[in-house]
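Side project, low priority. Logging it here so it doesn't get lost.
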Amino acid sequence: MMLIEHDQIDIGSEARILSLQKQSDEPSCPYQLILIHGIADSHDVWREAVNKLPMKFDAYYEMDLPWNLEVGDELVYEPSADVVLAEAWKHLPKGPKVVLAHSFGANVLLSLGEAIKPEDIHALVLLSVYSRQDYKIFDWPFFTGMVQEFDKFLMMSIDARLGGKSMKPRSRELVLNKAKQLYSPSSWLEFYKFYSQTPGLDVSPFSMPTLIAGGAQDFSIPHEEISQFSTKFKRGQFEFIAHCGHFAMVEDSDFVSKLITSFIEKELTMSTVTKPTKSTIFPRNEGNNICTWIGFKHVMYVAEEAILDHFRQNEFVPRALYEDNGLCLEIVDSDARILHALHMDDVVEADVQIDEERDQDESISLIVNLNVERDGQMLKAVVCRAAVLFKLDDSPVTQDVAPIKVPALEKWTYETISRPAIESAQRADILESRGEVNGSDSVVAAIKANSEKSLVWKWHIPYFYCHFNERMKHSGYLRLMEEVEDLFLADNGISIRTMLHEKKWIPVVPSAQVEILEEAFMEETLYTTYTLVDTYRDFTYTHRMDCYVERNGKLIHTATGSITHGYARINDRKDWSLVAFDDETKASIHKNLVG
């Protein structure tokens, strides 16, 4: 793929951004690639290496900055290099970026810190960045030596562009003098100013994956200094290039291209989902069972919501991934330690980040910290480790729409979820019954005396359907209404899964109502009647739900409600449409209609 100059944005201060034209194929890396050159250099210094990158970025931008080869002979260098780059950066489109910065250009970039929103940079490559560990080195002998070596520095650049071709001494002198005429001494002072500040440079804002590379044959910067400088970065790594000097991307563009590719494939893919995120979440009232404490399941729900929001904030919206690409976000592992109880009305601050202690090869490992305020201090209430992967949609309901892989997530995308257990586990036998439907006891007989066609479900109220210690809550009745509908369909030979696979039908609810009449308590036996009371043009049917407990020889009516169901056909991953009952469904439903 060849890049050519296509359009330019003039920034002022002799700066401009060149937008590079690329082939019309789809990007395999959804990032902008930003290219920054060094001092006494040209904007296209990266281009040969970039043309050899196998990945295709969303957009390419070359920065053409005032410290190039044509800065002139002005004695005053204003505005300062950092001001120029900061202003140019504002003209770049919003969106995640990968930055390749060379030499002095890398130093200017690092000097900007938070001024350029470093969180937008998802990966950073610094080649031949100038750095020293000790201020003491910048004494007068060092400064005069730098001035005296300016000719040597320029020839290093010229020789790199010659690609090993020889040049006669007279020709070298002419080329060098021409380059010096195009260069300003004040610019060299500007370079020295930034270089001399590197011992105390704060690089903490640059927490993204960062590759720092240096050439062993670069006389102007000892590669040992660059290696030491790389340790200042939170996620920095150093690459020693033994056979190159200061201009490695020109001297060996093949090698540098492979180096960048390896870095991106290893680190950039992860950076698409590794930006730490914060979310504010309230625990759901349904999980409030005992006093105001939240049950473990709903604590896990909070962690789950934080994980979903983590992907939203990293620009992988779960709904869009499914609807547009057929990717199903799956939380396949979770392990939570509850350190402090969550309560109703707690404002939970959820922090989600990559779990760097765990392998990221098979799934994305995350660590979720749930924090709450207690007595004016933030406490870590829950620590949850989780694993996430993506499954390609293969449901027979939507099989006519082929899934589309997302390159940045392809590493963790699977056709089938098949994860071997880490340890063999003993599983308890699953209870065979969900209670008793249309049993033979006297209470069921009394209820069915009013309507033989009603379904009566007898079961015991579990604690997790209750709140304030032992009282059945509103959400418990909502769950009950959903489950009794499932039992009604099963009792009439209607399988939701079969409907889904054979007809692409799903149950839909246009209206539902629940009213609590009397208290019902944990572990009481609840009798739920489900009575079909109405159908409408064979599009919907309405059930009435009534709930009773037997207490002191009396039948207490604890709740009532109604729910209207219909069926919708799934058209694709985004749309559905209401359908009329077919003859089979009509027969199964109508036989239960009362009145």
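Brief comment: The two ends are 74 Å apart (CA to CA).
Revisit when time allows.
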